[in-house]
Design a protein that fits this description.
The protein is mainly α. About 80% of the residues lie in helices and about 0% in strands. The protein has 2 helices and no strands. The longest helix has about 40 residues. The radius of gyration is 27 Å and the shape is rod-shaped. About 0% of the residues are buried.
């Protein structure tokens, strides 16, 4: 019985394990790139927003352009 299961499992594992791992790495790299790009895009707007809030809280005025 165990020999039967062993041969079935060996046939089922047809060597795609490496390809699947590479696919997961590529998906992870794509997601990391999207997160880094999103943080880069949002960081300027967030800095402006927090500076405006800090100026309101402290009563400071920005120099005129």
């Amino acid at each position: 019985m165990l020999d039967f299961l062993n041969t079935r499992l060996v046939r089922w594992d047809d060597g795609e394990r490496g390809a699947t791992a590479i696919e997961y790495v590529l998906i992870g790299a794509l997601m990391a790139g999207i997160v880094i790009a999103g943080v880069g895009i949002l960081s300027g707007g967030l800095n402006t927003t927090f500076t405006a809030i800090a100026d309101l809280v402290t009563g400071a005025t920005a120099p005129a352009p």
